[in-house]
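Subject: Sanity check before I submit

Could someone independently write out the structure tokens for this chain? I want to compare against mine line by line before I put it in a report. The sequence has 203 residues.
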Amino acid sequence: GHVQLLPPQNVTLLSKDFAMILTWAPGEGSPPDVTYTVRYESQDRLDKWMKVPDCKNIPRSFCNLTCALPNLYVKVRARVKALWGRSQSPWVKSQFKDYYSDVELAPPVLSLNVRENSIHVSVSFPLPTCVENLTWKYDLNLWEAGSEDKKKYEGYFRKDTVTINTTALRGNYCFSARALYESINLKHSEFSQPVCVLLEHKG
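---
Independent answer below. Compare away.
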């Protein structure tokens, strides 16, 4: 006979590290080999539930929707149901969110290229491919290890490298950056873990 398959719980659409992700927990008493299917609808086309190619009959309890979304500026919500054998649970819906105003940023990753009298600092962001063309920026901080006095370089585009003249710098210097995004208000990530380099005078 049919098993009464209980629906997924805690269905939440959240933004984390530049991505829009639907998460849920298995319904009570779910069999271990239960799978899930996810669909979404956008506020400009209500009641038209679209399939998410990578989230059909999946064993995991999350679905990355970022690159399935047709429009990053329109609110969407998602729904998920459990499947097991020939049994299906009812669908459970999330709340509405849109990428543009709800995106949560991750700290960028720094790479330092130390030259004789300068350092070239470039940052990369852990971005989903579909949002790469949005205008992400970053702030960079530079300070001498142990000092509270930070020199700030603000509002660089992520494609830009910051070149720092190190002629006058001696000792251990640290760098850290954060991602910025201008939506309805200005958002920023946490600062990245500091990367420190020892600058010695060539003499």
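---
OP: Matches mine. For the report I'm noting this point. The longest strand covers residues 171-182.
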